[in-house]
Amino acid sequence: MAQAVSSCSSTGLLFHGSKRESSPVNGKVSYSKQVASSQELGAKSSEFRGHAVVHSSGNLSLSCNCKAIQAVLASDKETVTSGDLKGSILRKKLNKVVLAYSGGLDTSVIVPWLRENYGCDVVCFTADVGQGIKELEGLEAKAKASGASQLVVKDLKEEFVKDFIFPCLRAGAVYERKYLLGTSMARPVIAKAMVDVAREVGADAVSHGCTGKGNDQVRFELTFFALNPELSVVAPWREWEIRGREDAIEYAKKHNVPVPVTKKSIYSRDRNLWHLSHEGDILEDPANEPKKDMYMMTVDPEDAPDKPEYVEIGIVSGIPVSVNGKELSPASLLAKLNEIGGRHGIGRVDMVENRLVGMKSRGVYETPGGTILFTAVQELESLTIDREGFQEKDRLALKYAELVYAGRWFDPLRQSMDAFMAEITKTTTGTVTVKLYKGSATVAERQSPYSLYRQDISSFESGQIYDQADAAGFIRLYGLPMRVRAMLEKGL
């Protein structure tokens, strides 16, 4: 298929309008006859292989820094006359699409929908980020029964923890005071793998099942744009007529797709090796207390053991490396702490957060191992980072968290900030013992060979390095601006 849009130096933009969008026909870009005026251009723009295409009543010329884009506009649909989709009306012809696949109802119906509407081969992709072995059982059979040509599964657990979780931990990234970014960190590692799979199987597009109200659509697509701007992106929830579970079931039956028989949870959950999130049902009202049986990773703190447990975390340059003296791989270390923290009810968070798309949402998170690690790393930093460095790191951590939450993992700003975090924590090495007791994780011991804490200086006893008499002059100079202002106010 000829490409009607030439490439630009900048990442392509994606616009979504009505269902009648531009589509390539015989190497040209066609447009809907419903577009009647220039005022409608913004709403009727559409995406073609990662580049912006704007409708017009005649030929289109869109300038880029590198070259002009020209497209000839005709009609907006293409009729397929061969294969099992004979007579179907396509939005745009794609060759092969890699779909982020979970095996649930939504992604199961996306498979035939993509084939019907884009005339493409569908390759399903599932990432193992620690969601649990049960989530992966029977996926290949489900995917092929839905019409996919194949299922690709990749184990991303070690990469997820080492290259995504641990950098955020080292940075001290927490979104809006509470959220430890469990879902936010997982999406870019999954999307990165999808780009890799698309290259491996020769796909020209990727697709996901994220809704148009959530953050995940942004996280997936910004990663696609950053790593391969030539890929087309298909987001069915922003295009199709399906509006709920009943519509999806009806569509599945119509296309002979086996409807998953698993019991549907009343909550919307996302689980990976770092956390488990809960949304929906009674949680949509912030006035409702979560039900006790909702939690899955942690016991109720009231039911936790009556005796505290101590766990020692070994840290090298801001990165955890061992538990109770035993060195473990990143994923194994986190899994071990999830088990330990879970039985003591550690890491429950209930919060109302500001979504990237503008609305507020209420979520409940379980992050047992992550909470222990955050406590340990931050406590060790209190020994190894001086005051100015500590304050600057905390200031940048807020921006770092915002970038990760917004899906800008591959943004040069986050990568540059990560270099700072690696430098400022290069001496954050040592051990921290954390006391776990009925939902709380508190520091018991901290030690570092690079500790800036000096007992001979900090002691209340007089010493040679710090002469208490020096404080008088320091206070007079430090307080001089306040003293001058008071003198002015009193006419002195």
UniProtKB/TrEMBL annotation:
Pfam families: Arginosuc_syn_C, Arginosuc_synth. InterPro entries: Arginosuc_syn_C, Arginosuc_syn_N, Arginosuc_synth, Arginosuc_synth_CS, Arginosuc_synth_type_1_subfam, AS_cat/multimer_dom_body, Rossmann-like_a/b/a_fold. One of its GO terms (biological process) is L-arginine biosynthetic process. Keywords: Amino-acid biosynthesis, Arginine biosynthesis, ATP-binding, Ligase, Nucleotide-binding. Pathway: Amino-acid biosynthesis; L-arginine biosynthesis; L-arginine from L-ornithine and carbamoyl phosphate: step 2/3. Residues 96-258 form the Arginosuccinate synthase-like N-terminal domain. Residues 267-484 form the Arginosuccinate synthase C-terminal domain. Its EC number is 6.3.4.5. It is an enzyme of class 6 (ligase). GO terms for molecular function: argininosuccinate synthase activity; ATP binding. CDD domains: ASS. Homotetramer. This is argininosuccinate synthase. It comes from Ilex paraguariensis (yerba mate).
